[in-house]
Write a structure and sequence with these properties.
It is a single chain. The chain is an alpha+beta fold. The protein has two domains: about 80 residues, Ubiquitin-like (UB roll), CATH 3.10.20.30; about 70 residues, Orthogonal Bundle (DNA polymerase, domain 1). The protein has five helices and five strands, in the order ββαβββαααα. A five-stranded mixed sheet has the order 2-1-5-3-4, with helices on one face. A hairpin with a 2-residue loop joins strand 1 and strand 2. The chain starts with 5 loop residues before the first strand and ends with a helix. Keywords: 2Fe-2S, Iron, Iron-sulfur, Metal-binding, Oxidoreductase. Pathway: Alkaloid degradation; nicotine degradation. One of its GO terms (molecular function) is metal ion binding. InterPro entries: 2Fe-2S-bd, 2Fe-2S-bd_dom_sf, 2Fe-2S_ferredoxin-like_sf, 2Fe-2S_ferredoxin-type, Beta-grasp_dom_sf, Diverse_Oxidoreductases.
């Protein structure tokens, strides 16, 4: 008897329903990048410490590098690529650009996705709420002041 470790994954990614046979030990990050070709979700620490791989799963910010793809079975995943329509810029992305919060850019998708999760649940967060929501994301360029300003600007752009 052959022990096939491939499993069925049913998932919605960026609005597209998918049904795929995957290795049971594949991380969500590997599925997104290597299987679907969504390279906006970054691989950095690969151990859930830096937040560069942050995506939204059913609206909640998660580290895709430490989440098995099968844990997303039946769930909805949003990546940076699905934030805005092709060729358009989401207000959160625009706020990060306008605030100078895009330094080298490697951490930016994770920060933007964490910001989206925050602003979806709290339209006008204060500084402490922003810092808490973004605490799981690291920026090696030390652009934290600009990032906090970007979240505030995004809030204004989205909710007035």
């Amino acid at each position: 008897m052959i022990n096939d470790k491939r499993k069925l994954l049913k998932i919605t990614v960026n609005g597209e329903e998918r049904t795929d046979m995957i290795d049971g030990d594949m991380t969500l990050l590997d599925y997104l990048r290597d299987y679907l070709g969504l390279f906006g979700t970054k691989r950095s620490c690969n151990c859930g410490e830096c937040g560069s791989c942050t995506v939204l799963m059913d609206g909640r910010a998660i580290y895709s590098c430490v989440t098995l793809a099968l844990q997303a079975y039946g769930k909805t995943v949003l990546t940076i690529e699905g934030l805005a329509a092709p060729g358009e810029v989401h207000p959160i992305q625009a706020a990060f650009i306008e605030s100078g919060a895009v330094h080298c850019g490697f951490c930016t998708p994770g920060f933007i996705m964490s910001t989206k999760a925050l602003l979806d649940r709290k339209h006008y967060p204060g500084d402490d709420e922003i810092k808490e929501a973004l605490a799981g994301n690291l920026c090696r360029c030390t652009g934290y002041v600009q990032i906090i300003n970007a979240v505030k600007l995004a809030s204004k752009k989205l909710y007035g």
